[in-house]
Amino acid sequence: MTDTIESRLAARNITLPEAAAPAANYLPYVITGSHLFISGQLPMESGSIAVKGLLGRDVDVGTGQRAAELCAINILAQAKAALGGDLERIVRVVKLNGFVASEPSFTEQHLVINGASNLIAEVLGERGKHARAAVGMACLPLNASVEIDAVIEIG
């Protein structure tokens, strides 16, 4: 099997879902020049939010990392839709912005967002090494625990 993004996803038993439609007056992604901007993705799985609540109160770090991983899977699903199904057009993931719904004393947002960073780096190799932010929030839409957006360079 050729070493492609799709083959690395398959090796992890990850099937990308259909890219989610926007829930309001925005686009799920925008391509301008050689950059793909992907709107914030929630930890959706099988059509619903898989991880809800605040880190440090309702959700532990391991479950938060799984939520971040689901966000990354949904980012890749949006990228696939934007790129006509060809993930090999990804030149580099430039930046991930991770937002973690947290109770006030929780300070491990960076560990939560590692769930997304690790998946992206594993699946995309060197193309997946990125800059990022991991920010605590009082709450996120639909009580999601994590939301992540992305900037991707494309060819």
UniProtKB/TrEMBL annotation:
The lineage of its organism: Bacteria, Pseudomonadati, Pseudomonadota, Alphaproteobacteria, Hyphomicrobiales. This is RidA family protein. Pfam families: YjgF_endoribonc. Residues 6-145 form the Endoribonuclease L-PSP/chorismate mutase-like domain.
